[in-house]
Amino acid sequence: MGQIDLVDISKSYDKQKNVLDEINLSIEEGEFFVLVGPSGSGKSTLLRMIAGLEDITSGTLKISNEVVNHLPPKDRNLSMVFQNYALYPHLSVEQNILFGLNAKKVDKEEQQKRLIETAEMMGLSELLKRKPKELSGGQRQRVALARSVVSEAPLCLMDEPLSNLDAKLRGQMRMEIRRLQKRLGMTMVYVTHDQVEAMTMGDRIMVLNDGKIQQVGKPITLYNEPANLFVASFIGSPKMNMGKAVFHADRNQLVIDDALHLEIDPVINNVPRYPNVTIGIRAEHLYPGTAENTTHVVEVINVEQLGNETLLAFEVGAEVWTAKWPGQWDVQVGEKVPVHIAIENLCFFDSDTGLLIKPARAGKQQEVVTA
Amino acid sequence: MKKILAILMLGFVLFLAACGSDGNADEAAGSATAGAEGTSEGSGDNEKQVVTFWHSMGGAGQEALNAIVDSYNSSQDEVQVNAEYQGSYDEALTKFNSVAGTDSAPTIIQTFEIGTMSMINSGSILPIQELVDADGYDMSGLEENIINYYSLDGTFYSMPFNSSTPVMYYNKDAFEAAGLDPEAPPETFEEVEEASKAIVEANPDMKGFALQAYGWLYEQLLANQGALLLNNDNGRTDTPTEIGWTEEEGKSIFEWVERMVNDETFANYGTNGDNMVSGFLAGDVSMFLQSSASSRDVIDNAPFEVGIAFLPHPEEKERAGVVIGGASLWMIDGKPEAETNAAWDFMKYLQTPEIQAEWHVGTGYFAINPAAYDEQVAVDAHEEMPQLNVTVEQLQATTSSFATQGALMDMIPEGRKIMETALETVYNGGEVDDAYNTAVDQFNTAIEQANAARGE
Amino acid sequence: MSMNSTAIQQTPKSQINFEQVKKKQRMKNFSKGMLFLLPSIILFSVFLFYPLARTIYLSFFLTDAAGATTVFVGWENYVTMFTSPIFLQSMKSTFLFVLYTVPITIIISLFLAVIANEKLKGIGFFRTIYSSTMGISVAAASVFWLYLFHPSMGPLNLLLNAIGAEGIGWLTDTSWALFAIAITTIWMNIGFTFLILLGGLQSIDSSLYESADIDGAGYFYKLRRITIPMLSPTLFFVVTVTIINAFQTFGQIDILTQGGPVNSTNLVVYSIYREAFVNYKFGSASAQAVLLFIIILLMTFLQFKFGERKVHYQ
């Protein structure tokens, strides 16, 4: 039993196709839970159903073990931050923060106390008399957060709160929200379409596509063991390199997209014997080849220098793969470079169902460092 | 948003000011009709001389007039008369003022009697007298009282056309029910009051008498006492400088109304004549004063027997008679001779006994040419509706004097409005003295201003 | 020495050239701008500026029936106007009329707009109904009300009679006539005002209400703290336009009362009309028009000056 339990939750408009299809989910108390998915996946709808702003077509929603399907938003004891912040343009920052407390007729002294605390915490003390239009994007974001904080609701819902900010500010706010959530111990349900936000902020992530749950799990699990092709391509940047793979048992070769041949040692490598297999490999697992271990030589078609790492793009059949090499590499477009591709770094998916057959081994062994 | 608002607002304001200033819009409307006219001219028979005739006859009058124009157009093939309705007399005059002197001006315009002076002063009309002299036309065949009104210093300015006088309509059935003699209608103010009381007593749902707040009726009630509206013999010997009636004459009407208002026998329809007529037809009021031009309409539509009587007068005064009301036709100056002659031919046609008889019977206006009453149509109609005869009798019983010749002055429309306001004040329980004195002051001021505006 | 002087001369010369180029550019820009403005300048001149100037000019003259000036009288038309009890009564009626119509129109329209803004089945039908008076011309509406106000056969009086009350002389009683015109006007204006206010309501971000719902705000709390303030720019526009409209009321008066009874509905614009086209006193009519222009300008200015403080543009 968690703080929020969704049992067979579905949503449809006008009795047509389900926008959300039988969602079962449990969110724990104090958890930072991220709903991520492309636009139109139903993640915002799901959040608004939890808030009580949308009707639940079928299924049961429980908050703190109580069925709340029928309750209006105000009786669900939660707060919400909207994508556009929903600040009242005609009210000052102070009035905006206190709007909810006023509506609930909270005692004036209590209001002031909470206001001062919250403003202090959010760094808004100097801005209380200003109107929203006199604030910067980040300051407005803080006011919206402050409204949630001041309500002292144990559950906070956020609907893409950072999408209106520029990249630098977004990074900063990610951390602030995360710290705030931990500090206040609130349960957070956070909707975003940005997988970086999801990865960096969430205790757990739910990937949603087309109204269906794709995978629920810790960020690292999603990264290393994507449950299906969708999650594999959605999580991670640059996205996972994919290709259709055919296994030639006679030659002990795995042929990817009719272009890349991988030698397989049938004793060591346990390659799944499915008729239609799609393989995936993370960019960081396409290592620079040394004299000893070079398996392939590829022609670079694009180079991105990021300073701490270098992204190299090359063609594999019809696909473009990207390799991420740590450090700075002086490679020109058109140059042929050696790479090392290891069978154990491949994820195997069933092309028909899209489901994961076998995750990459390397990830587990090498990358998760336990402190 | 702010700027757009400000501009919008400025636009509104300016546009309003523009509309208030002069007849721009009307000018545009005038030229539009002129354009339409031109095309009809082109498509019609090229040989026919076209005469444009602006009139203000709506409803039954328009039908009767159109029938006459059609009969004229088909009676000969040299002249084509195009009759165009231009709204009320006021509206038509306003339009005329804005096109006077241009090609858009009509050949003939129908104007009400109180517009006489402004038409003469406008300088854009051709006095009929010139055509009468040139043609050797004999005006003496026309009704004397009518001729009196439209000639000034022995000159005819316009051709009388639709003339009416005010009469008193009464509900004969209601009279009978109240024990009054339906064949002996009240003749004086006092008798009207008595009859009203009897009516209300017999039927509390019916009021006795209604007087529309209409300046023309007030003028008629003055004339019936032999009183002048304006000094200098109603403006016929010299330009008027002030009112022509005495306080006793003027106030008698107000006091008469006030007494009936206090008796609660008076029905107040304000300035709305249509409501008054429909009230009468619905049996809400038993007597009212109105132009004889409505008689045909009222008789045809009433579910009871309608009586028509002479205009009442105060007991202590002799009945002096009524002023000829209605309108006349004006010839516009500066048109080609052929067009003017064609228009003159049409005017003469209108005065023939047959046409006048048709006009009289069809509307209730009376015949300009008394010979019309001998026409069979008229004889038959009078037999069927003897009430139509009353208007004729009343006019013939009128003694010709400056009072019954009617007043000439260009401020009369304004004067009427002033008297209407005063009457309504009394209807609404205002003091007679206050209302009367205010009205007289305003009336005199209006005369002064009108004289000043002519620069005299 | 000579070298020196040429050097000095040359420097300012090049500066002047530079300035001239800029000036030339500015002139070019200006004339291009004027070219774009030309159509509206011509239109405004013909239909607004010239008539306005002409009105002011006329207000200093007496005129004949055709509107031609006859005698120059200076300020006399204005003096006469301010001492005329009829005109003063007309001003009083106009202000009373504005007072009757504007607040009630806006309150009713706001109420209708708020209820029509709810997302209910078939709400489109009601929106159409509420805004339908916008599609009715002043003339048609007036004739319709003329019938309603008919002293003996009008439904209003029939209703009064049916409940045992005395019929009211809607258009003939001095204490009712202005009120009757006001009712007619309110009825006619509701359509337009409703539509504008509804538009304003719909442009309010729904997340504001959702946020308030989560905060636990009640219906009237939301109405007072969100709807009205967020609607204030629209309300401001509507108030301004309604006031100007009220000052310019003409059609319904011409059809219903002709300014009567006892001048109680003789509003300024009708008075101007009567002065000009019935009495043929274009001079004093122009003086009244100029005064009306000044009053509306002043009212609008005051509204912007004081009313706008309470307006929150987004």
UniProtKB/TrEMBL annotation, chain A:
One of its GO terms (biological process) is carbohydrate transport. GO terms for cellular component: ATP-binding cassette (ABC) transporter complex, substrate-binding subunit-containing. The keyword Membrane applies. SMART domains: AAA. Residues 4-235 form the ABC transporter domain. InterPro entries: AAA+_ATPase (IPR003593), ABC_transporter-like_ATP-bd (IPR003439), ABC_transporter-like_CS (IPR017871), ABC_transpr_MalK-like (IPR015855), ABC_transpr_MalK/UgpC-like (IPR047641), Mo/tungstate-bd_C_term_dom (IPR008995), NA-bd_OB-fold (IPR012340), P-loop_NTPase (IPR027417). Keywords: ATP-binding, Cell membrane, Membrane, Nucleotide-binding, Translocase, Transport. It holds the Pfam family TOBE_2. GO terms for molecular function: ABC-type transporter activity; ATP binding; ATP hydrolysis activity. This is Glycerol-3-phosphate ABC transporter ATP-binding protein. It comes from Oceanobacillus indicireducens.
TrEMBL record, chain B:
CDD domains: PBP2_UgpB. Residues 27-46 are annotated as: Disordered. Pfam families: SBP_bac_8. Residues 27-43 have a biased composition (Low complexity). One of its GO terms (cellular component) is cell envelope. Keywords: Signal, Transport. It comes from the Bacteria. It is found in: Cell envelope. Residues 1-20 form the signal peptide. The keyword Signal applies. Belongs to the bacterial solute-binding protein 1 family. This is ABC transporter substrate-binding protein.
UniProtKB/TrEMBL annotation, chain C:
One of its GO terms (cellular component) is plasma membrane. The keyword Magnesium does not apply. Its main location: membrane. PROSITE patterns: ABC_TM1. Keywords: Cell membrane, Membrane, Transmembrane, Transmembrane helix, Transport. It holds the Pfam family BPD_transp_1. Residues 91-303 form the ABC transmembrane type-1 domain. It is a multi-pass membrane protein. It comes from the Bacteria. One of its GO terms (biological process) is transmembrane transport. InterPro entries: ABC_transporter_permease, MetI-like, MetI-like_sf. It is found in: Cell membrane. The chain crosses the membrane at residues 33-50, 95-116, 128-149, 178-201, 228-247, 285-304. Belongs to the binding-protein-dependent transport system permease family. PANTHER family: ABC TRANSPORTER PERMEASE PROTEIN, INNER MEMBRANE ABC TRANSPORTER PERMEASE PROTEIN YCJO. This is Glycerol-3-phosphate ABC transporter permease. It comes from Oceanobacillus indicireducens.
